[in-house]
């Protein structure tokens, strides 16, 4: 099934991105990373995140772990959103701790490194594959029908059998 047809509830998005539910809720309420499949409408409704949303959540987490300010992360996420998140998996995001740069070629990475300052990078393709692997073992939800999709977790045989019985 195409990734655009699958959504992930908050706890699944948290598990795949390595964040707490409290972080997820705060980032959604403040507009940092909002669920693109289904936002929450009052209490009791479930947010539904797309695969790309979960990748962005994990990127935000990595930037926070390396000390980039939330303000600079917001600027980077805004830039990604304006770009339409296209070609995410081929992108490298670099930061000197104060600014986040988008690099799409080795020449751009090399040019940044020539500045002589400390720079770290996030190869988005690696994050993409990490999230893909994590989500393949977790539950998703069909966007059109709401049907729960069971991940490929071999330890979850009972849940798979229950799903087939319904």
Automatic annotation (TrEMBL):
Residues in HTH merR-type domain copies: 16-79
UniProt keyword terms in alphabetical order: DNA-binding
GO molecular function, one term: DNA-binding transcription factor activity
Secretion signal span: none
Lineage: superkingdom: Bacteria
InterPro entries the UniProt entry points to: DNA-bd_dom_put_sf (IPR009061), MerR-type_HTH_dom (IPR000551), MerR_fam (IPR047057)
Gene3D superfamilies per record: 1.10.1660.10
Keyword DNA-binding annotated: yes
Keyword Manganese attached: no
Pfam families: MerR_1 (PF13411)
Record-given protein name: DNA-binding transcriptional MerR regulator
